[in-house]
Every structure is written in C-alpha cells, then in structure tokens.
C-alpha cells in the first residue's frame, strides 16, 4: 500500500489498496468525509449525507470480501450537482430546485455505482451549469447559511473556474479523489486548468445525458475530473457507453477500456498548433507554460505542425446564440407547476409563472433565457439562430481539415489563470471571452481535455488543452499520460491541502 495519506493517492492506488484489503471502503469514505467537513471555507460541497455514503461503503466492503467487486469498488467520488441522485438532493445550484429529490439516478451515477463507486456527496456548480467562475450559485454550501461562490484551493481569493468549479476544487484540495463534471462550452476543461487537475470532455454522445439536468442539449457532455490522465481513463471506462433506451443522442459505440493505450509511444505524433490559439489576448505567463509543454512533447518524440482554425473567434457569438436558445427551451419546464420552487404570492396562473421564474432563476440564467428567446423569435430565427447553426458546421469542418495534417491539436485552455472572485461579476462578456479556446471543440462535438503544465502569475495553475478527432479519447489520454510520466505538474498540490 502507498505510504501517502489517502487523500494524496491516485484512483489507481486507492482501488488497488481496496482490492488488496489494505484499507476498507468504509475507512476511505470516512477519511474523505472528514476532510470535506473540515474545509467548509472552499464551499465545494452542496450536500453531504454521512449515513448514505457509509452505507454504500459498507456494501462495497461486502462485495470486496465476497470477491464480487467492480472495477472501481469502494472508490469515493463526488458528483456535480447537475446529475440527479436518489440519495442526495439535486438542485443544479438553483433556488428553482432547492431541496429537490430525484426518484432515480442519472445514468452516469448508476454506471459508476455499478462499477462500485461510493458517492461522497454533491458538489457546487454555476446555476444550471451557466458560468465560467462558479460564482453563479444560489444554494448554500455545506456548513453555510447562505449561497457562496466556490473558492480555488490554490488561492482562496480566486475563482476555481466554472461551471464544474466545485468538482475541480474538491479534487485539487483532496476532498475527493475524483469527481464528475459536465462540459457545455468548456466547463470541465477550464476549471481543471484553473485548479491544476486533469479533466476530459468526451466526444458528444459518448456518455449518456440521461439524468443530467439540461442546459444546452446539443452541447452538454459529462466527463471525469481527477488528478491524472490515468485516473480519468479508469473513470471514463466506467462512465461511457450507449444508452439508447434513455438518451437518443447517445452514440451506439461500445464501452471500452480507455487505459489500454496509455503507455503507447508518442514518437512521431503530430501535434497541431493553431495560430489562432496563440495570438493577441493570451497572457504571457500562460503562453510561456504552454510553449514549455510543447517543447517537452518534442523531447518525447512528437512533431509540432502548424494548423489553422480560422473561425475560432466566431465560436463565441455562435455558442452564445445556440446555447441560450436551447437553454430557453430546456428551462421552460421550470414553471412552478409539477416540481421545484413555486412563488407564494400570485393572483392567477400567468402571475404564478412570472413570479416563480423571477424568484427561482438567478441573473445569469435569466439573461441566457432572454437571449435565447430573442434569437428564436419570429423575425430573428433566420438572422441569428439559423446562421449560427451554419457557422457551427463550418467550425466543425475546420477541425476536420486540420486533422488531415495532425493527430491531436494543442493549445491553452484559457487566455489567463484564474481571476479574482468578483472581478468579472458585473461583466458577463468578459466571462464569455474566457471560453474562446474551449468553445470550438464543444461546438464541433469533439473530445478535449486539460492537463496541468505549470504555474503562471500568482503561482496559479496553467492547463494545456488537447483536442482529438471523434472517438479518439484513448489517443488523447495516451498523449496526456506520456507527458505526465515525464513531468510532475499533476502531482503538485495547493499549500495546506
């Protein structure tokens, strides 16, 4: 068994120790529960239930003793509060769903449970996954009386990234060995970069969206967040696979073991470097860390190849037309009738709808609903929404042209390191611009991931983004893993954690 404390061990180390009975699932779960309760200042968790978690851990111990253990038996994991769960409230960090209990588990939750995972609790996110800093949350974290933004473990005055900021902060601080996240426009990759961990957004449709509270249905995709590419490979192997009976957008692609190709040589690998990712707007400290990472890849035998993604700058207006349009449709179900928040004061049905949605949704959610309703309205559908769909196709074609000359594409995850909490709170456009490098892959439905490659201004982590062609998750994880075998950035931890 590794001599490192449990919260400093990898998913591989923990599952090996559990299988060898060096430690019990109950002991591991209790360790992480204690750490999570000991660090309320990060505001990472929205829900903990010690009894429910320990009951799952005890059941895992029984399976381990009986020799019927799953691949991840006894591993504790935190779920982003965008996945519905039977044992924990599912709120999407919104007042609209505060206290809501789902009668079923999301497919991702069920598949991980089938593999033996123990749920630690639900972690914070931007409301309905809408945000880049995890400041748009309306539900009070564990141990607090009022809603509060998640804080970055590397510097508590800074954001952890969004919308999966709770997931990233929990993993970075050792409050969970791994967590689930969702990525609509970069919400796995950007918080992973800001918190110095690894995260992967699979090809759209690789992982079932059933039970994932919808934001933008043609963009939302679930993925794992953990310390390393190896950890992400083990988790994604349990999460991925078709779900035709519940999710019509899931791909009919069999589940696979994403860890099988981790150690393959990358000698001769062609890494595409798009000029559009290295122009004006990228901070010097981020550029320095990314350039150093690319040089490390050259030492490992890879070749850097210039490629073009000429519509990169169009990804922001395209995304912020398509995503709000889909959000305005998806969020129309929250009207106070069947479930969720309902206003107390109203005179008629129309007023109940208006008051409920006014009280239940936060400012950013309202902003996106209004933008979405506008671009879908008569007279503007063709001018905005339909045109955005056409440009989305062109962006996807740009990637296919680039992949003719390279195997993977590399660049920064974000133009800067994590910013101060409140710095961009009153400037939504500044938040949107922070997603410029992650949006193109989301619009194209391509797999992308972030891995830590150094520290920038203020000692804050910098993430390298790797983008692959469709269904090339194994290749991405291999490329990331070989880098992590040669460097130790993924092993660095924030002080005090």
UniProtKB/TrEMBL annotation:
<keyword id="KW-0808">Transferase</keyword>
<dbReference type="InterPro" id="IPR023631">
    <property type="entry name" value="Amidase_dom"/>
</dbReference>
<dbReference type="Pfam" id="PF01425">
    <property type="entry name" value="Amidase"/>
</dbReference>
<dbReference type="GO" id="GO:0050567">
    <property type="term" value="F:glutaminyl-tRNA synthase (glutamine-hydrolyzing) activity"/>
</dbReference>
<dbReference type="GO" id="GO:0030956">
    <property type="term" value="C:glutamyl-tRNA(Gln) amidotransferase complex"/>
</dbReference>
<comment type="function">
    <text>Allows the formation of correctly charged Gln-tRNA(Gln) through the transamidation of misacylated Glu-tRNA(Gln) in organisms which lack glutaminyl-tRNA synthetase. The reaction takes place in the presence of glutamine and ATP through an activated gamma-phospho-Glu-tRNA(Gln).</text>
</comment>
<comment type="subunit">
    <text>Heterotrimer of A, B and C subunits.</text>
</comment>
<feature type="active site" description="Acyl-ester intermediate">
    <location>
        <position position="187"/>
    </location>
</feature>
<dbReference type="GO" id="GO:0016740">
    <property type="term" value="F:transferase activity"/>
</dbReference>
<dbReference type="InterPro" id="IPR036928">
    <property type="entry name" value="AS_sf"/>
</dbReference>
<keyword id="KW-0547">Nucleotide-binding</keyword>
<keyword id="KW-0436">Ligase</keyword>
<dbReference type="InterPro" id="IPR000120">
    <property type="entry name" value="Amidase"/>
</dbReference>
<dbReference type="InterPro" id="IPR004412">
    <property type="entry name" value="GatA"/>
</dbReference>
<dbReference type="GO" id="GO:0006412">
    <property type="term" value="P:translation"/>
</dbReference>
<protein>
    <recommendedName>
        <fullName>Glutamyl-tRNA(Gln) amidotransferase subunit A</fullName>
        <ecNumber>6.3.5.7</ecNumber>
    </recommendedName>
</protein>
<dbReference type="InterPro" id="IPR006594">
    <property type="entry name" value="LisH"/>
</dbReference>
<feature type="active site" description="Charge relay system">
    <location>
        <position position="80"/>
    </location>
</feature>
<keyword id="KW-0067">ATP-binding</keyword>
<dbReference type="GO" id="GO:0005524">
    <property type="term" value="F:ATP binding"/>
</dbReference>
<feature type="active site" description="Charge relay system">
    <location>
        <position position="163"/>
    </location>
</feature>
<comment type="similarity">
    <text>Belongs to the amidase family. GatA subfamily.</text>
</comment>
<dbReference type="InterPro" id="IPR020556">
    <property type="entry name" value="Amidase_CS"/>
</dbReference>
<feature type="domain" description="Amidase">
    <location>
        <begin position="27"/>
        <end position="477"/>
    </location>
</feature>
<keyword id="KW-0648">Protein biosynthesis</keyword>
